[in-house]
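Study this chain:
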Amino acid sequence: MMKARSSLLMLCLCGQLMSACGQTTRPSQTEAQQAADKQAHKVVQVDWRAQLAATQKQLEREPSSGFLHGQAAVAYDALGDFESFDREIQTAMRLDPGNSMPCYMGYAVYKRKHLTDKQRSVLDAALKIDPANPFGHYEKAGMLEDAKERQSALKEYETVQGLLQRVKSDPKNFQNNGWRYVDARGNSYDVTLEESRVANDIARVRAAMQNQK
């Protein structure tokens, strides 16, 4: 049962993260990549009210479970209840401070809601927990570039490039025609698009910096 719930949360997390990435289309993103993003956004249909009710019953028995609070947050977000989502995801982060997944779940929703301060806060928290995640650094680079902090953005994009090389150094990370980064907690992130874009991102930021001189 726990495995099934974990798989569901991971699937929904991946959908949220891909959707969040799609909110900002950078110049390096081709139409084909946009189409791939759109396809990746599709998540299996879930009866979220039933899922929430089941999770709430579990929480009555395990009120200190960060995982279950994260699962409740996913359901509340799917049902459009942001206030409850915010409460539950913050609780999940507090109860499981060594797990970056609730941080990224919060990041995806805060990004969609354009809550920049919260977005930046949870992203920084995620990277503090797991500084080797290329996805997190790529998202941070995008935030910095949007804020016109190009020197810092360039540094982050270059960090992404180095971390992706580490991922690609192990052939076992190539799964289902894409590159995957797996953190110490077993959370898996598809970093194929970051790998395909980052060289163009670096070139774009360097050109922008050159034009400023």
Notes: The chain has two domains: 1-114, 130-213.
